Amino acid sequence: MSPMTPDAADALTELHAHDMAGALRAGIVSARELAAAHLARTHRTDQGLHAWLSIDDERALAEADAADARLSAARAAGPDALAALHPMHGVPVALKDLVSIRGGQATAGSRILEGYIAPYDAHITERLRAAGAVILGKTNMDEFAMGSSTEHSAYGPTANPWDLGRVPGGSSGGSAAAVAAFQTPVSIGTDTGGSIRQPASMCGVTGMRPTYGRVSRYGIVAFASSLDQVGPFGRDARDAAALLHAVAGRDERDSTSAPIAVPDDLISLPAGDDEAAGWLRGKRFGIPAEYFPAGMDAGVDARIREAIAALEAAGAVVEPVSLPHTEYALAAYYIVAPAEASSNLARYDGVRFGHSIRGGSDYLSNYLATRGGGFGPEVKRRIMLGTYALSAGYYDAFYLKALKVRTLIKRDFDLLWEQGFDALVAPTAPSVAFKFGAKTADPVEMYLADACTLPVNMAGLPGITTPCGLSDGLPVGLQFIGAPWSEAALFRAARAYEGVTAGAEWRSMRPHDLAALEDPAVPTPAERAARH
């Protein structure tokens, strides 16, 4: 087979994952060609984006060759064997750098894990290998997933391909930006307070936080164990659904992993726009008033209202609803999450693994030097908040009360499901992507970026964001929130909205700064951020 031209290789990277799957099965393209095209584009364009912390060409090409061998064997065995291959077979994927890959790094965006090599695969890594996916490498993230902009990575920030002077959201900003910039068709993130949905919204891609327990957390570096959940990014609902299908499922090594079957509906979303849109007829959606705060960008508000009108025009019934305890969600989250982080991050002591500073007079001085030098300011801030909330005399006043509020937040949602709502519709973020440095001086302002997403995490529910247009030339995300285990219905809702808006002009727009990424002299995100 003759080598592909650069233009032909780039054309491959701009296919959707489901189109790649079809081309692989038809023998139009090989898994190695797909992997090589994405690796080449990533190496060429990542200086100005910094979406990746490691890229493993050798491993990726070996996995691609193995996928091609399985494809050849399936073709020889007949159509049934070919159809039995998972839709992710041979498709490239990126992992957030807190997912363990045996023999590879897992820094969680922190200096304290610099040099750590994972001795085992995470459950989702095993599942991706079983599905035949090709893992390209690891993406950038806020340190220990603590942040909403990927500016808190110890290895430098990631830029947004729509505007290289702006953040991609966070903490899974590297995973979202890599999908938006055509460096990978799909990627894995984690969502503790909105860390998949918020960057998906700001980068103009689709992202889902599944129900807590749908995907095993085994082999995932922990932030807040009762809130963390692994989920997919894709450029549309079909691609994200196929990736979730590949990684979801019960894992006996994770006691919070639910023994609930993964619905095959995830890999049978309708291909036709009219069929997809037809699902909306008669569906009942609620619009929570609390998700439209006074400070929301006017352009974001307008795009969300237009999206809701489009759902109604397609036959959905949309009604105003209230989630009265939402106003307490932000405060409760920033007690529960830091408390769990304080406990989880106690293991980084400079003795067992990762970064270690020695040479002090005793163990305690080495311990303090290691943690002081290894953790960044946001992580230290949350450890101190969490330790304070759990300390004697304050546990009942803060942590226990926050858990009670969490129960009330969940009850608000439960009452709506009992009333027969199919899903809730809301903004994903109150603003479009903001400029580097705009919120770093005010942690509370940064925390407010997750105000529309973190109630879902507090209640353990699934939520999905899908693009719904532009405001000031930047993407806006529409969020659907569902009852527990309703991922298939949420993907149907997102796919239906794609069908309704298939002819919209903004659907064909590409990130504005893709051409700038091709310039070898383009400034790095760290250089851009320093100017602010």
Q: Care to describe what's here?
A:
This protein is of the alpha/beta class. It has one domain: Amidase signature (AS) enzymes (Alpha-Beta Complex), CATH 3.90.1300. The protein contains 20 helices and 11 strands. The protein has helices at residues 6-13, 17-26, 31-45, 57-77, 79-84, 123-131, 173-180, 197-203, 237-247, 273-278, 298-313, 329-344, 363-374, 377-390, 395-418, 443-447, 454-459, 487-500, 514-517, 525-530; strands spanning 52-55, 92-96, 134-139, 186-190, 206-209, 230-234, 284-288, 317-321, 423-427, 463-471, 474-481. The chain has an 11-stranded mixed β-sheet with strand order 1-3-2-4-6-5-10-11-9-7-8, sandwiched between helices. A hairpin with a 2-residue loop joins strand 10 (463-471) and strand 11 (474-481). Helix 1 crosses helix 3, helix 9 (237-247) packs antiparallel against helix 18 (487-500) and helix 12 packs across helix 15. The longest helix is centred in the C-terminal third of the chain and has 24 residues, at 395-418. It is globular and about 65 Å long. It starts with 5 loop residues before the first helix and ends with a helix.
Determine the CATH superfamily: Amidase signature (AS) domain
Main sheet properties: 11 strands, mixed
Total of DSSP H or I helical runs spanning 4+ residues: 20
> Radius of gyration, Cα only, in angstroms?
22 Å
Span between N and C termini? 49 Å
Number of domains: 1
Overall average residue pLDDT: 96
Per the CATH scheme, the topology name is: Amidase signature (AS) enzymes
Helix share bin: 40-55%
Judging by the overall fold, what is the CATH architecture? Alpha-Beta Complex
Uncertain regions: pLDDT < 50 for 5+ in a row? none
Q: Any idea what the shape is?
A: globular
Q: Can you list the strand order of the major beta sheet?
A: 1-3-2-4-6-5-10-11-9-7-8
Total number of beta strands: 11
In the CATH hierarchy, what is the class? Alpha Beta
Measured by DSSP, the beta-strand proportion falls in: 5-15%
Oligomeric state: single chain
Question: What structural class is derived from the secondary structure elements?
Answer: alpha/beta
